[in-house]
Hints:
Layout: E1 8-13, H1 17-25, H2 27-30, H3 41-50, E2 53-56, E3 61-64, E4 68-75, E5 78-84, H4 92-95, H5 98-118, E6 125-131, H6 139-142, H7 146-149, E7 156-161, E8 164-173, E9 177-182, E10 188-195, E11 205-212, H8 217-232
Antiparallel strand pairs: 1-5, 2-3, 3-4, 4-5, 6-11, 7-8, 8-9, 9-10, 10-11
Amino acid sequence: xxxxxxxxxxxxxxxxxxxxxxxxxxxxxIRHWHGWDTPGLDDEIDLIYFQSFIEDAQAxxxxxxxxxxxxxxxxxxxxxxxxTRAPRGVSPEWDAYYDDITEGWTTFLxxxxxxxERQPDAPRRTAFLAGTTAGAPELIGELGLVDVxxxxxxxxxRATLAGQEVAGSVWFxxxxxxxxxxxxxxxxxxxxxxxxxxxxKPDGSAMAVLSTFGLDDAAFTELDxxxxxxxxxxxxxxx
Length: 239
């Protein structure tokens, strides 16, 4: 794989360069946007960002994992974050998950942008769902979001998600992912991803990350249970 063939993920954040860099180098801040709530989240953050890493704080560059390179630089009044994936073959044991990791970075960098632009102070609470797509309906269509997915980023939308009437704006769209802000979740964020079955992933994959803010225990449990019930009959976990 040449440098030109390495996937590049880029977001522009409406925040100062120093704030974006701090969000990548302080564990308490990383926890606001990286991944989702799991018992092993802190260990994952430590492994990726603070164990095998190469940092140049003055240049604001960060190498993580097996050669993924993050560059933080000014872009007008904001900050551009560019992540260039390591070449395939650097870590053969991870090559089977190469595309999954690329999709994961797409989600995480959009969650980083959301954290800095919309929720820089509030703690988040997340629900995570994942499953297979073999024989399953396409996720965007099943959620009733085909028309929403065609809107430009920043457009207002209304939809019914897993039985709940919601509204917000389109956060981003990529080849396999759609992100929407959700006013009803304390101005939260939902990111959904759908990859159909293929040669490298015969079962395909579907994923949803629901980031919420300020919901009490009852409201969050209801949301989590409703999405889990909706999801489980459509996109079951791998056998």
